[in-house]
Design a protein that fits this description.
This protein has 71 residues and is mainly α. The chain has one domain. The chain is 56% helix and 0% strand. Helix 4 runs antiparallel to helix 5. The N and C termini lie close together (9 Å).
Length: 71
Amino acid sequence: MTFETDIRPLFREGDRTAMLYAFDLWSHADVREHADAILERLEEGTMPCDDPWPDDQVEIFRAWIAEGAPA
């Protein structure tokens, strides 16, 4: 599992734009740094703000973190 192949495509351009004030969802370093907070919001269904991710996408993100958030 890699960021470019498996994680970055989960974030839409609008998601990225909405979060640029805090961090870049298309940046491995930024997402890795904020991974726990992002996962918490994904699990709550408050991110992305317009339509929560399905459980399978949240699980992909969770697994990526568990694997050490590889590039």
